[in-house]
Amino acid sequence: MNLKKLCDTLPVACHTDFVQKGGTFVAIKGMNSDGVTFIPMALEKGATTIVVQQNTVLTPETEALIKKHGATLLRVEDTRLALAQLSAIAFGHPAKKLKFIAITGTKGKTTTTFLVEHLLKTAGYKTALLSTVKNRIQRIEYATKLTTQQPDYLNAFFDQCVKAGVEWVVMEVAAQAFSLHRVHGIVFDAGIFTNFSREHGEFYPSQDDYFTAKEQLLHCLKPGAPLVLNQDDNKVAALAGNYNPSLFFTSSHPYTCPQLVGRFNAYNIAAATTCVKALGVAEPAIAAALLSFPGVAGRLDRVQLPNGAIAFIDYAHNPASYQAVLSELRLLTGNLIVVFGAGGDRDPIRRPLMGDIASTIADRIVITSDNPRSEDPSAIAQQILAGIKQENAHKVLVELDRESAIRKAYAHSKAGSIIALLGKGPDEYQIVKGVTTPFSERSILLSLKK
Predict the structure, then answer these.
(1) Which of 175, 285, 294, 442 gives the lowest tally of CB atoms within 10 Å of its CB?
(2) In CATH, what number is assigned to the domain containing residue 70?
C-alpha cells in the first residue's frame, strides 16, 4: 500500500533517520542495537543535544566528538521516559488537546480499533486512528511498522491531529507500549480490553508479567472514563473489581456487521459498540454505521480464486488466534488448507502449539516461512512439526519458499475449498536475515490461473 510518511525530521528523535539540525537525539538501548553507537551519526545530522542513560559509559572518541560539535550531553534515569517527555514538550503537549480511546488485549485489537473509529466518524466526529495496519488522520493515511509507535512519532502525529481539528484518537495500545513508556503522558477517555491469551514470551519473563503490562491501562484512564471488558474472559472480567465504571461485552451482543464473520468478530463488534454507546453515540446510528463498515485489510481478507476455491489472508500468529480463525473457516468448507509459518525472533513456545492446532482442524497444512528475521526458517519449521500428532502427519507438506507454498496449496484445492494464509495479514514484505524484500500474498493469489 502506498501510504504517506508522517514526517521527515523530528525535534526530538530516537532514530537517526529523523534527527533534525538543532534537534535532540535520545540514545535508547533496544533489543538488537544500542542507540549510543549512533551518536556520531546524529551529530553529523546536526543534533545539538544528546540524551543517554545515567550510567552509560561513552568511549573517549564519542565524548570528544560531542565536545567538538558543541553539543550538550544530558544524562537521565530512563531514556525511554525522557523520549516521551521531551517529545511532548517539543510539540507543546498536543495529547492534552485531544480525546483518546485505548484498545488493548491479545487478539482483536486492530479490528476493534477500526470499528470504533468508523462508528465515531460515521456519527459525525473528526477522528484519527493508530493501528498495526496503518495510521490515519481523517482521510490521510500513513504507513506504520509498529502496533504502537515510539513517542517521538506519536507526538508528531498528535500535533497533526490538533491542526486538523481531530476530536477523537482511537489507538491500539500494545503491552510493550505501556512497559516502554510509549504512551506516557496520554490520559485515555475510554478503554477496551478485548481478551487475554499467550503471547510475547520473547519479551516478558512470564505471562503474568505480560498481563500486568496490559493492566496498566486501568491507571491511564481519566476518572469516570468507561472501561469495556470481555465478560467471557475470566482474567479480563476480573479487572472490574479494580475499576469503576466497568462495562461488559459478550459475543451475544445484538449488533452485526456484513463484512465481519465469525464468533471472534462478534466479540470485536460488541466491544466497539459498547464503547461508543457509553460515549453517547445513539443505537440507531451504531446499527446504521455497521452496515457501511468496509472491513480491515489482512483480517480474514477474502480473495476468490479462479478454480472456485476461496483464500483468506489473515494476521493470526498465535495459538488462540489459530483456534478462533480455523474453527470458523472449518464450518464453511469440506476442504480446508492452511499455509503458515512462524515469525522469527518471537516466542518459540507457540510454534508447536500452532502446528498442532492447524493440523488437527485442517485437511492439509503447508508449513512455510513467515518473517524468519535472524532465525533459520528450516529450524522454525522443525519446531512447528514437533507439535503435530502422528495421526495428522499425513496432512503435512513443508515448503519453505512462501510463494511456492501458496501455489502448492492452490494445486491441492478445488471448487469449494478454502485456503487460509496465516501470519502476515496486510504485510507486503518478508524479513530474512535482517533484509526486507517486497512480498504480497494478494498479488500472488491474483496471479493464479485456473
Answers:
(1) 294
(2) 3.40.1390.10
325 and 273 in one domain? no
- pLDDT score recorded for residue 3: 57
Can you tell me which residue has the cell 496432512?
Answer: 395
Q: Is residue 1 part of a domain?
A: no
Could you list the residue range(s) of the whole structural domain that residue 47 is in?
10-89
CATH number of domain containing 191:
3.40.1190.10
Q: Is the pTM of this model over 0.70?
A: yes
Q: What one-letter code names the amino acid at 285?
A: A
Q: Which of 70, 89, 108 is the last residue of a domain?
A: 89
Q: Helix crossing, 283-291 with 263-278: angle to 10°?
A: 140
Contact 276, 115 (CB under 8 A): no
Q: Are residues 123 and 260 in the same domain?
A: yes
Q: Which residues of the chain have pLDDT under 70?
A: 1-4
Q: Are 148 and 133 in contact, with CB atoms under 8 Å apart?
A: no
Q: Which residues contact 208 (CB under 8 A, 6 or more apart)?
A: none
Phi-psi region of 295 (alpha: psi -120 to 50; beta: other; left: phi over 0): left
Q: Is 169 left (phi over 0), alpha (psi -120 to 50) or beta?
A: beta
Give the closest residue to 326 by CA, choosing from 450, 207, 420: 420
Residues 246, 106 share a domain: yes
Query: Do the Cβ atoms of 293 and 257 come closer than 8 Å?
Result: yes
- The answer to whether 310 and 302 are in contact (CB under 8 A) is yes
Dihedral (CA of 224, 265, 322, 304) sign: negative
Determine the Cα–Cα distance for residues 359 and 392; give it in Å rounded to an integer: 6
Question: How many structural domains comprise the chain?
Answer: 3
- Amino acid, single-letter form, for residue 87: S
Residue from 296, 326, 306 nearest 421 by CA:
326
Residue 444 CB partners (closer than 8 Å, separation 6+): 403, 406, 407
- Find the CATH number of the domain harbouring 413: 3.90.190.20
Quick one: CA dihedral 65, 68, 69, 71, positive or negative? Answer: positive
Query: Residue by residue, what is the 3-state secondary structure of 104-127?
Result: ECCCCHHHHHHHHHHHHHHCCCCE
Q: For residues 28 and 80, is the Cβ–Cβ distance under 8 A?
A: yes
Same domain, 342 and 355: yes
